[in-house]
Amino acid sequence: MEGYHTDQKDRLLDFLGQNTTRQFKMEEIVSALDGKVGKSTVYRLMRSLVEEGRVRRFELGRAIYYQYLSGASCDSHLHLKCTVCGRMQHLDCSVSTFLRRQILATNRFQLDDRLTLLFGLCADCREKSPEISERKSHA
Q1: 100 pLDDT more than 70
Q2: With contact defined as beta carbons under 8 Å apart, do 24 and 65 qualify?
Q3: Computed from CA positions of residues 113, 30, 43, 16, in that sequence, does the dihedral angle turn out positive or negative?
Q4: In whole angstroms, what is the distance from residue 139 CA to residue 135 CA?
Q5: More confident residue, 126 or 73
Q6: pLDDT of 102 strictly over 50
Q7: Which domains does the chain have, with CATH numbers?
Q8: What DSSP character marks residue 24?
């Protein structure tokens, strides 16, 4: 299905491509497309994009989120998620490898890279709200 394009798929990919640092619940994607792509079509297309490896599907608590991968593999590194703006970024592979090895050596616990998120504040949010950054660093 990767080679098969429709206007609906192009709209969905355009939206996801403009938001590569964010994750969305399915309802948020449907809403953002503003009726230009039907709900059932969005669900079908997202399922195929996950199967193709172009979209990452993950659970956080009871919610299911989706993120466009834009060519980056998410199976070999950890992720950082901002608790203020919600942006997610990939942690450098060498740092991820170091942390995984340290955790395995000290705790005998093997992380699942595909599911591991580290929460905190991104640089933009720290700059915009130094008082939030200061509170979090003392917590």
Answers
A1: yes
A2: yes
A3: negative
A4: 6
A5: 126
A6: yes
A7: 7-68 (1.10.10.10), 79-138 (3.30.1490)
A8: B
